[in-house]
Design brief:
Elements: E1 2-6, E2 12-15, E3 32-39, E4 47-51, E5 57-60, E6 77-79
Antiparallel strand pairs: 1-2, 1-3, 3-5, 4-5, 4-6
Bound molecules: zinc ion (2 copies).
Length: about 80
């Protein structure tokens, strides 16, 4: 499953394809970035990572994408 994070509001969504961009609480449309193939919950074969800037926690097959942290610049992922 793909894991997507909005680069504006920081919402995390697990979905097969990019979610609807309507209704970002920060204003306008969500700005979805695919973080990795993974999940929002721990599953066998997935590794946990947390961004030290926005606090998002993700479970990924491989190192997550650092593009566009909602706190500005790139995510700063650390392996938990
Ligand atoms: Zn958003
Ligand atoms: Zn971040």
């Amino acid at each position: 499953m793909g894991l997507y994070i909005c680069g504006k509001c920081g919402a995390l969504v697990e979905n097969f394809s990019p979610p609807s961009s309507a209704g970002c609480p920060v204003g306008g449309s969500h700005y979805w970035i695919k973080v990795c193939n993974g999940s929002l919950v721990a599953k066998p074969g997935l590794k946990p990572y947390q961004c030290r800037k926005c606090g998002a926690t993700v479970y990924c097959q491989s190192f997550p994408s650092s593009a566009r942290c909602p706190k500005g610049g790139s995510h700063s992922w650390v392996r938990l």
